[in-house]
Amino acid sequence: MNSAAPPRLFSLQGRRGLVLGIANEESIATGCARAFAACGATLGATCLNEKARPFAAAVTSALPCEFLVPCDVHQPGALESVFAEIQQRWGRLDFLLHSIAFAPAPDLHGRVIDSSAEGFALAMDISCHSFLRACRLAAPLMPQGGTLLSVTYLGSERVVPNYNIMGPVKAALESAVRYAAAELGPQGIRVHAISPGPIATRAAGGIAHFDNLLTAAMRESPARRLATIEDCGGLAAFLVSDAAQMLTGTIIPVDGGQHLLA
Ligand code: NAD
Question: Taking the complete model, does pTM exceed 0.85, yes or no?
């Protein structure tokens, strides 16, 4: 699974991108990083912490990835250090992928109305506000323009069983994408979120009965198959390429049409 080569559709030769959120071979960020690299980009990447590094390194070592640094986005100053590293190494950045989400299990598994203020705030900080912080830090490194991507899910706008607290968090993320696109557009910086259908990743394993979402997507989506991390990579590479220069502020489903269904 997820082993097919990403499509080589758009040149990202000479482009430099930062990928946040590679946990392992199955991560959506992995599919995107491979697609960016296949299109010619040079990358830098972050992983959650030192414990996570070997698993992320197994992915990045096979790519033109110049650095892999730990970055827990919830820790004050962590994102700032990563951008300081980019400033020092490259002096500029062309694109960024934020593929990070977290919610504490008790809040994720309960009713939305029962979520704790602390759990909700933590989920919002890691899954949404960290994207805004990354946008703010990336913008000065993009004097010639650039692209900032995050990853969302249909549970933002529909009630998806067991998606729970992540629904409102992803709704906030999508709104944040639109505001950031409006604010940074005049600087030539484009902002999007890709919205994959369900994919069996480590984060997805935290959602109760996730198998039911996979089964439903396979059976009911117009494409009659699951989205893969390679599908995500193809879309992400297109969005950061010059082919997508007049697109900004979009939430693009990569779900075989599942979002069309009632
Ligand atoms: P994943 O577990 O591979 O990736 C999640 C990443 O978030 C991991 O790398 C993890 O280390 C990182 N993370 C969590 N807390 C962090 C923190 N405090 N600081 C830094 N990094 C942190 O799972 P994935 O499914 O590839 O998730 C990537 C994104 O895709 C998430 O935003 C998720 O909501 C979204 N998404 C997933 C699916 C799906 O079905 N898998 C569908 C739509 C959207």
Answer: yes
